Amino acid sequence: MEAPREEWRSKAGFILAAAGSAIGLGNIWRFPYMTGENGGAAFVLIYIFFVIFIGFTIMLAELTIGRHSQRNAVGAFEAIFPKTNWRFIGVLGIITGIGILSFYGVVAGWTLGYFFKTLLGDFSHLSGEKAAQDIFVGFIRNPVSEIVYLFVFIALTVFIVSGGVSEGIERWTKILMPFLFLLLVLLVIRALTLGSGVSEGLSFYLKPNFSALKPEIFILALGQALFSLSLGMGAMITYGSYISKRENLISSAGYVVFFDTLIALLAGLAIFPALFAMGMTPKGGPGLVFLVLPSIFEKMPFGIVFGACFFLLLSIAALTSTISLLEVAVAYFIDERHWSRVKAAVLTGIVVFVVGVPSALSQGASKWFDRIPLVHMPFLDFMNALFGNYALTIGSFFISIFVGWKWGIAAASKEIELGAEKFSLRPIWAFSVRFFAPLAILIILIYLIVTGRFF
Fold it and tell me: Is-contact 153 231, C-beta < 8 A?
């Protein structure tokens, strides 16, 4: 006899877990530097538009597939349309989750390492941004520390996922998410009280300058929305499969999107006032967090405390995301291969760690992985481009096509209406999932292929 499927104990538990999946380095690390490089407030407004009209659309679609089927990312498509090629969307999702987790765990390890570095005072006597760069380069080129921090992060993830849905994932996200929010609010308050330059930073972040807009910024904003919400890889299908039929999927998806966006916006409020108060440029690129911010912490009062809190915040955000990435594969092995949860979590964790080692060694620790032949980029960058950009975008595209055209609006709406009194957004959602979302995502794919640029 098959064991009853695990469920979230409460709606709040699901929202915190799903928000934790969406909230990660994409919000607190990637969103600020993308905003800084692409015009500030104008980029923020376009990003919010895409989050509402495309992010929410696909979020609701994934949750609906998951709850209707009560299965994992592969089993969900198989349950709705047995023995068809649609199941390969789920297969892509599992491969994508493992691929992203393998390099995401490396960057997550950097945040943990920088938390300890800040606490130990490594940045207390920096002579400039060059000194911060030297510390970062030395850190990521150390093969021992790179592999150790990757192992620690994957081990923490395996430990939490092994506990199960309610006792593991839900229990820990109920602790981690409020703590993450509290830390971020404290950092925002501290950033807003740094004195001169704060108002200039707020103006850059909150006052849009549409004259500087380029068509490319719309593409980048949509890409950031998909990346930030963890869409297209089966995470929300898997989390949705644990939702009770009594719960309102519309409000659940809305809350997850709201909290994910709120955290991203708060991260900007913590970073840009601090940047301008210290007289630094917002165009720091991907190295903004690890190369620029330590210099800021060193210059501000109580910088060690501020810096340690920031990198602890990044670590927690990363952990809530790595949990969902691992759960996508774990749920598959539990449902389809009938493995125990502990066995599935441990063995998948081992695979992720092994696959992640080349990424950990690709930032200068080993010449073998510094530059991959043909693509001419470090192994970590290649994995990010392949899975974090292409695979997520392709997955989101086919999920919208599946729900909008194959399964159908009527069938999907019937599932959505089970826990909702009325689906008043149905006409808007139907138009978006059938036309607007797939068209916009297709434009991103064409842009990526034609330009070769990895957003």
Answer: no
